[in-house]
Write a structure and sequence with these properties.
The complex is a heterodimer of chains A (400) and B (157). With 400 residues, chain A is of the alpha+beta class. Chain A has helices at 43-47, 52-60, 67-82, 88-116, 120-141, 161-187, 189-195, 203-208, 213-217, 225-228, 249-273, 323-335, 343-349, 376-388, 391-394; strands at 3-7, 19-25, 28-35, 150-151, 154-155, 290-298, 301-309, 315-321, 361-364, 371-374. Chain A folds into 2 domains: 43-349, Cytochrome-c3 Hydrogenase, chain B (Orthogonal Bundle), CATH 1.10.645; 363-394. Chain A is built from 15 helices and 10 strands. A 5-stranded mixed β-sheet of chain B has the order 1-2-5-4-3, with helices on one face. A two-stranded parallel sheet of chain B has the order 6-7.
């Protein structure tokens, strides 16, 4: 007997609106179908109405986690169309932010994977450590989510020696923590048992369905745009492309932890090699007629922007292909012959986006209903005070 | 294989079928074929050049015609295969028999440009909603968004 179970568009197990329709026989999924479009905002149409600079900020808002990926992919295409080369220092700072973004995205994903697998302490550890890289990003760019560091022709903010030292310090802590996760992930038996053999995507299927990023690499397909199409500074830097051959969620965890370690290597090289000089070049307002295909390795995989210019200050066409879209056919394949209980884990394993970073907390008084905005530091102080004033709770003893 | 070698081989293998072959930047090749030759060219690229990965399909409204570009890539080169379809009869053959991952992008093309993809295994809508009116294709240049008049139940207070 077959049943169809709709999951989404709004569902507690999903972090973004998408409709998964599962055909199940008992506990086993026999077929899956994905329906998109609940978050379609018409960005490609809007882009045709905005000028080159405005589109930079528009493309940054395509995604809430890999925001820098989209704006960088767009801006490196526009720079090719305008035939300008940003100064090397600007390039290094831009791709330094790229790698820091990859670190934050992968740490976030590791936490989500731990949470979906029922390993919540892993989730709390990774997200605590993610704050280190978020603070670095805020220090360099001034923002936590939409960094807005890119400008056509370079970047908007420079890096001083103190900041360089802080980045290196942060990377040292993060590397230590990531090595620890690597050990936990590889030796915690219950976690491994939960994720091993779940969401299997064989290599030939990954190739046929054009999977990208860590999803493809966990199936043993070593494709990385940074390596095969070395854009900007990646040709001058040393790094490896980690892969796994288990083709399951376990492989995807291992690949992402290894990628974290590679990113730390890249960040350190970029800081040490950071050239002197200006950070941005002067750019024309219009681009010559032409077209360009810009590829970028986002945390989730290959990001592709096709930009066509007609000689004015606005693009004729901007086509965006985000990596999550490319991984949907592969997700359907992974879900087939899995269990209902594995759906959140498998779906989370391709790393679809979540929005984050609410800085101000609004507290509503339970008695009067009054609202007040509280700063994070004050909130922490209040929490500590409350904790100190509760000796009973603090010194509670198990009564036997 | 270097770009120059690839170009020579492409010219030898596909001479008649490639209308235009440009090489604007390192590792970027732009090929143009007639809509009828699309499957044959894709097949040759896949079998002889190891082109198995399709990044996406871009549609461009050029007024009288629609241009569609298939962005393929191998670890060495990007192959961008383009073709032009008349606006009056925008039909193109599906390449999903050769590259199964193409279905998603072909569905997107049908939604946004109203290009009919023949023999597509799954012709349902992808990004537009189910109650989207027929014959409205948002990425065509002559399509303009008009915000529907907001009706407040009970009238304005």
């Amino acid at each position: 007997m077959k049943f169809q179970i709709p999951i989404g568009p709004q569902h507690p197990a999903l972090k973004e609106p998408i409709s998964l329709r599962m055909t199940v026989e008992g506990e086993v999924i026999v077929d899956a179908d994905i329906r998109l479009g609940y978050n379609h905002r018409g960005v490609e149409k809007v882009a045709e109405e905005k000028n080159w600079t405005q589109n930079l900020y528009l493309s940054e808002r395509i995604c809430g986690i890999c925001s820098h990926s989209h704006s960088t992919c767009y801006v490196q295409g526009v720079e090719k169309l305008m035939d300008i080369a940003p100064p090397p220092r600007g390039m290094y700072i831009r791709y330094l932010v790229s790698e820091l973004e990859r670190v934050h995205s992968h740490l976030l994903w590791l936490g989500v994977a731990g949470h979906e697998a029922g390993f919540d302490s892993f989730f709390m550890y990774t997200w605590r450590d993610r704050e280190v890289v978020m603070d670095l990003l805020e220090m360099i760019t001034g923002n936590r989510v939409h960094y807005a560091i890119n400008a056509v022709g370079g970047v908007r903010r420079d890096l001083d020696d103190l900041q360089k030292a802080k980045v290196l310090e942060g990377v040292k802590i993060l590397r230590e923590r990531s090595v620890y996760y690597f050990r936990i992930g590889a030796s915690e038996p219950s976690f491994v048992a939960r994720i091993a053999g779940v969401g299997v995507l064989p290599l030939e299927k990954a190739v046929a369905l054009c999977a990208v990023g860590p999803t493809a690499r966990a199936s043993g397909w070593a494709r990385d745009v940074r390596k095969e199409d070395p854009y900007a500074v990646y040709g001058e830097l040393e790094f490896d492309v980690p892969t796994a051959d288990t083709c399951d969620v376990l492989g995807r965890v291992v690949v992402r932890v290894k990628e974290l370690l590679e990113s730390y290597k890249l960040i350190e090289q970029m800081i040490h090699k950071l050239p002197e000089g200006p950070i941005a070049a002067k750019v024309p307002r219009k681009a010559k007629p032409g077209e360009v295909v810009s590829r970028y390795e986002a945390p989730r995989g290959e990001n592709l922007h096709y930009i066509k210019s007609n000689g004015t200050d606005k693009p004729e066409r901007l086509k965006v292909r985000a990596p999550t879209l490319a991984n949907y056919p592969a997700t359907v394949e992974m879900l087939r012959s899995g269990f209902i209980a594995d759906i959140p884990l498998i779906f989370a394993a391709i790393d679809p986006c979540i929005c984050c970073a609410e800085r101000a907390v609004v507290l509503t008084s339970a008695r009067s209903g009054e609202e007040s905005i509280v700063r994070l530091g004050d909130l922490r102080r209040q929490a500590l005070e409350r904790h100190q004033k509760a000796p009973l709770k603090r010194n509670a003893v198990w009564p036997f | 294989m270097t770009d120059a070698e690839i170009i020579d081989r492409l010219k030898a293998d596909l001479g008649g079928k490639i209308v235009e072959l440009t090489h604007p930047a390192p590792r970027r090749l732009f090929l143009k074929a007639a809509p009828g030759d699309l499957l044959a060219v894709t097949g040759t690229l896949r079998d002889k050049y190891g082109v198995v990965f399709l990044s996406t399909i871009t549609g461009v409204d050029k007024g009288e015609t629609f241009e569609i570009i298939y962005h393929f890539s191998t670890p060495e080169q990007d192959f961008n295969l383009r073709t032009e379809l008349p606006r009056a009869r925008p039909h193109v053959e599906s390449i999903s028999s050769l590259i199964p991952g193409a279905v998603l992008y072909e569905r997107e093309l049908q939604d946004m440009f109203g290009i009919v993809v023949d023999h597509i295994p799954d012709a349902r809508r992808l990004v537009l909603s189910d109650d989207w009116p027929e014959g409205q294709y948002p990425l065509r240049k002559d399509w303009k968004h008009e915000r529907p008049v907001e009706v407040i139940p009970g009238g304005e207070s």
